[in-house]
Amino acid sequence: MLQKSFYIVGVGLLHAIGSALFGDLLNLHATCYNCLDPKLSLTFVIDNTGSMGDDIAAVRKTSIDIVNQASLTGGVANYVLATFNDPVTKNTIRKTQDGNIFINWLQNLRATGGGDCPEFAMRGLLDVI
Q1: Which cell locations does it reside in (predicted)?
Q2: Does one domain contain both 30 and 43?
Q3: Is 99 in contact with 72 (CB distance < 8 Å)?
Q4: Most CB atoms closer than 10 Å: which of 30, 35, 45, 112?
Q5: CB-based contact 123:95 (threshold 8 Å)
Q6: CB contact set of 61 (below 8 Å; sequence gap of 6+)
Q7: Which of 52, 39, 46, 27 is nearest to 91 (CA)?
Q8: Half-sphere exposure (CA, 13 Å, Cβ side) for 106?
Q9: For 4-29, how does the pLDDT look when each residue is reduced to its tens digit (9 = 90+)?
Q10: pTM of the entire structure?
Q11: CB-based burial of residue 85 (10 Å sphere; 0-12 exposed, 13-18 middle, 19+ buried)?
Q12: Do both 61 and 93 map to the same domain?
């Protein structure tokens, strides 16, 4: 809940002090250029291997909550969902400008496969970049 107090629309610290001061406070400008600027892509890179079976519902719910919050601001230009699995041929990337379509993708996330080699987390990150 602490993290939501930073950015929740209308009441969070970001709303209260503005993006410039918020960025200064958290030293975001040193490594993040325009990271608080509207009309950016909201990207999720999610492990959907079988080992995530106990966690995928929580990942799904939290991701949907974040998308719903971001949609309220109207500042998201693209929603990008990248999943990684093993083998790497099971990795996927999807992109849309419609938050509802993105939420549908998240609702259909399932943990499958895995167990035969380490997950390709870095490959998932590289693919989405």
Answers
A1: Secreted
A2: no
A3: no
A4: 45
A5: no
A6: none
A7: 46
A8: 26
A9: 555 566 667 767 777 777 767 766 55
A10: 0.63
A11: buried
A12: yes
